[in-house]
Design brief:
- Two copies of one chain form a homodimer.
- By secondary structure, chain A is α/β, with parallel strands linked by helices.
- Chain A has eleven helices and twelve strands.
- In chain A, the strands form three sheets. In chain A, strands 1-4-8-5-9-10-11-12 form an eight-stranded mixed sheet, with helices on both faces. Chain A has a two-stranded antiparallel ribbon with strand order 2-3.
- The relative contact order of chain A is 0.13.
């Protein structure tokens, strides 16, 4: 299996205002988009891949001037890969409010001439889906072969099936949930507090002051990172290993680093704080918290999913304690009660929530088999 | 059942230097101590109760000038309560380095004439046990009827059974663990990072600057608090309830509080940051991280526990994901392989780690029955 190779993002500008769920309106905006493979003549082979918290439109391949910057789902998307770009036309879209090129908090607010900062409107999963629908319009895609995503990306796929039931044949929802639990929201709120109380956050206007709330972002990322890994996986990878065993063989009796897990997490936190935008972090965690399609149906998810027309593929991972298999099963139950066609796989994998991004042959082969079916279905209809 | 009523703490000063595990020495120090009930003539009915992260010597009863300040284990300790002060003489000791009166980071370092701050030596569970042993000496107690604790307090009880096997007849270890996991350490380290990077921490010397790293402490406490509650319990108590439903019935689309769980956790964090010391938080989380009696025995807990002579009572709670029942079972297994007498209860309780402090009749009745046995044993020997 080879990578899709060199890819290039493109900017799509939208002049028509976007009405947001909050009541606010985005006057105009642009989105970063990346595509892989070729759209067929009847425009039926497009698959939209939706990203999670810290990912982007850069789903697969690498950039000519930055060959180490490989797309976040390069093991999933490419020629001969589970989502095969020799067959499908795959689209990655950086969501509004993100910090990888699409209009977001660090861009200039046309109303003030200064960066939006915390004044960038809080967007929701549904707002993202509406913005993605315009990308589909622009590309002339009336119906996706599939909309697919993991985690927060899976929420977008699910929202697509509700908001635009005619516009996707298949909905692929990996390691996701129909809504956050109180514990999920709690972790998000602690992360937000760490950012909001960092003096360098400056009420969200840190851009103008030439500072970045790195400490807050670091703590936020460390918290997040713990929830992405499984307890068992952490135990196996790090356990209670000391970082500098050779040096002392003992504890340091200070507040620096004793254990490898500390070193690993702080390093991850530092790295993240150097490339991720604090306002984006706040905004995306709120989008996660707010997602709850059953909310307008008295909490009845089956009612919320009654309008769907797609076929569904769901997968969850046994050691994922962020969005446990039970949450995926809730979606499956609600779909089955609506007599939707559902394929569901509960993968026995040790890597927690992160498993959806990793190489697990059972998981990847199941997705491959599902897309093979999608492809044969398309071929049959085209014939 | 009535409370023990009005109680008074006492200060015990120790002039003999205390050698610490880190290699440092505490030249002199004092400990806050509280006792309940009456020491019998042969001094055989004493029970030492060890405290966890944010508790103190104030185990039961209340203060004459502060009747709302009820001891942290008042439902466990008192006349007619599971640990019955009509029978037992119960001792609470505030650990060294804590912030409730015993010598700690906010006290004056005799070497510099200024508050210790971050220069207060990092103490370990074993150091605390050595300091507690001197309290026993001072009170003329050669052997405790029992040493008891929950969580970090349970670690102290376990350390007692290893370090002073002749000095306790029973060892009562509730909701504890023989060592922290990588995930436990990770949560502690994020909490420490939040404090250490708060500009008001000032390298630990915030006392002199008249500031307190409240934001860091708040975030640290919020993280800790999430790990003390079970996912299910949070779901039941808070779920996705909005705080101001009546006001708007909708999301606020900002970075303030939407959900009740956010309101609850921020409130708990704020409250904690007003009374707890930041250096103590760092120090106590390090004591937690370092505890690992098997470490000097190639990780073999059974070897570490081979020297013990006590009888053991252990209890764990099914929904405790901080120190899960599995961790208690490790201790039980290691004890059984040494042919120690062990009573173990796995309590089906919804409240997570916090369950060890709450009223659960099955749990409290088991502890009561165990102490009844301890009492009868003492009576038989005394006869």
């Amino acid at each position: 299996m080879s990578s899709i190779g060199i890819v290039s993002p493109q900017t799509m500008a939208f002049a028509e205002p976007l009405q947001l769920q909050s009541g606010a309106t985005l006057r105009d905006y642009h989105l970063m988009v990346e595509t892989y493979g070729t759209l067929n003549a009847d425009r039926s082979n497009a698959v939209l891949v939706c990203h999670a918290l810290n990912a982007s439109h850069h789903v697969a391949g690498y950039y000519a001037d930055d060959p180490k910057n490989v797309g976040w789902w390069d093991n999933m998307v490419g020629p001969g890969k589970p989502l095969d770009t020799d067959k499908f036309f795959v689209i990655g879209v950086n969501n509004l409010g993100s910090c990888f090129g699409s209009t977001g908090p660090m861009h200039v607010n046309p109303a003030t001439g200064k960066p939006y900062g915390a004044a960038f409107p809080v967007v929701t999963v549904e707002d993202w889906v509406n913005a993605q629908a315009r990308v589909a319009d622009r590309l002339g895609i009336a119906q996706f072969a599939a909309v697919m995503g993991g985690s927060l990306g899976g929420m977008q796929a699910l929202a697509w099936s509700i908001m635009y039931p005619e516009r996707l044949r298949h909905c692929v929802v990996i390691a996701s949930t129909p809504k956050l639990s109180a514990q999920n929201i709690a972790f998000n709120d602690v992360a937000r507090q760490a950012i909001l109380t960092d003096p360098d956050y400056r009420g969200g206007d840190f851009y103008e002051h030439g500072v970045v709330p790195k400490n807050g972002l670091k703590v936020a990322r460390m918290i997040g990172h713990i929830t992405y890994l499984s307890d068992d996986d952490m135990a196996e990878k790090f356990g209670r290993k000391l970082r500098d065993m050779a040096e002392s063989g003992s504890y340091k009796f200070g507040y620096g680093i004793d254990f490898e897990i500390e070193s690993y997490l702080r390093y991850q936190g530092d790295k993240f704080s150097e490339y991720f935008d604090a306002n984006t972090y706040l905004l995306i965690t709120k989008a996660l918290d707010y997602f709850d399609p059953a909310r307008l149906h008295d909490g009845d998810l089956a009612k919320a999913l009654a309008v769907t027309k797609a076929k569904f593929f769901l997968a969850s991972f046994t050691t994922d304690w962020r969005f446990s298999p039970e949450r995926s099963r809730e979606i499956v139950q609600a779909l089955l009660s609506n007599r939707r066609e559902v394929t569901y796989a509960e993968i026995d994998a040790p890597h927690g929530h992160d498993a959806f991004l990793l190489d697990d042959s059972r998981y990847l082969n199941l997705v491959r088999a599902y897309y093979e079916q999608v492809w044969q279905e398309l071929a049959k209809e085209g014939a």
